[in-house]
Automatic annotation (TrEMBL):
Keywords: Ribonucleoprotein, Ribosomal protein
Signal peptide annotation: none
Molecular-function annotations in GO: structural constituent of ribosome
Gene: rpmF
GO CC terms in record: large ribosomal subunit
Protein name: Large ribosomal subunit protein bL32
Similarity comment: family membership: Belongs to the bacterial ribosomal protein bL32 family.
Pfam families, per the entry: Ribosomal_L32p
Any Gene Ontology biological process: translation
Record has Membrane as a keyword: no
Keyword Ribonucleoprotein: yes
HAMAP family named in the record: Ribosomal_bL32
Amino acid sequence: MAVPKRKISKARRDKRRTAKERVKVTGFVECPQCHEVKLPHRVCRECGYYDGREVLNVE
């Protein structure tokens, strides 16, 4: 069975764990059609447009 050769220090362990928390949260962009805030590369929930085309019928 595999066993670590040396103890990993708390500093090394914690450095590895903080790398996951440093991931940047995606920003928001303005929809070019209705100028509402939306996530990038997604259909706008307010107007239903994506890349200049109507994808969803929003009533």
